[in-house]
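Appendix C: a fully annotated inverse folding record. The material below is reproduced so that readers can follow the format used throughout the book. The structure is listed first as tokens, followed by the designed sequence.
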């Protein structure tokens, strides 16, 4: 069994904000997989389904972002899965809006939701699906940035990113994180190739 967690804040006022891209991805997955029976358990909204032959649990913690682990830790223990079986989707300010990056494990990188998960799961070894939301505008605080809705051009990019992440999450579940990283992470090699071509042309 795999638990797919989208991080975000509950309530309509937060629904369209940058901090809620994890919820948006989980909702998109639910729609794609025709999962519509949600229930409340351990301070989270959860829904069961399948990807291929694998049983999955979609999770939207209702604890507010900074306490996400308070919902996910008890769910991990209740369903008797390991941290490696938990796939976490969340916003990332360090990559441009609409960019995606899949990681196998790692530190919180300053993300409070991830920090809470690490504390409550007792491990950094869980896969992350990161959706870029870009850096704050000059004069904007981090809080103002992540709790603001997307401008239209960013929203379009993020909507496209969410669509492309549905098969990426299915790949993590059916195959492996490594295969998904290889297939769906932006390729760095292209930049080097362009530089090399420029050198040759120069």
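Designed amino acids, in order:
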């Amino acid at each position: 069994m795999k638990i797919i967690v989208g991080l975000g804040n509950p309530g309509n006022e937060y629904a369209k904000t940058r901090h809620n891209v994890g919820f948006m991805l989980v909702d998109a997955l639910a729609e794609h997989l025709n999962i519509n029976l949600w229930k409340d358990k351990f301070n989270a909204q959860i829904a069961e389904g399948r990807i291929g032959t694998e049983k999955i649990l979609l999770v939207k913690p209702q604890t507010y972002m900074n306490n996400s682990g308070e919902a996910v830790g008890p769910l991990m223990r209740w369903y008797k899965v390991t941290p490696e079986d938990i796939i976490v989707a969340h916003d990332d300010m360090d990559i441009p809006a609409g960019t995606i990056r899949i990681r196998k494990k790692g530190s919180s990188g300053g993300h409070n939701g991830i920090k809470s998960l690490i504390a409550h799961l007792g491990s950094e070894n869980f896969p992350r699906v990161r959706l870029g939301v870009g850096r704050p505008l000059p004069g904007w605080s981090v809080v103002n940035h992540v709790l603001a809705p997307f401008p239209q051009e960013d929203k379009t990019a993020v909507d496209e990113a969410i669509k492309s992440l549905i098969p990426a999450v299915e790949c993590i579940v059916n195959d492996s994180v490594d295969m998904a990283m290889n297939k769906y992470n932006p390729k760095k090699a292209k930049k080097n190739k362009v530089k090399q071509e420029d050198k040759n042309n120069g």
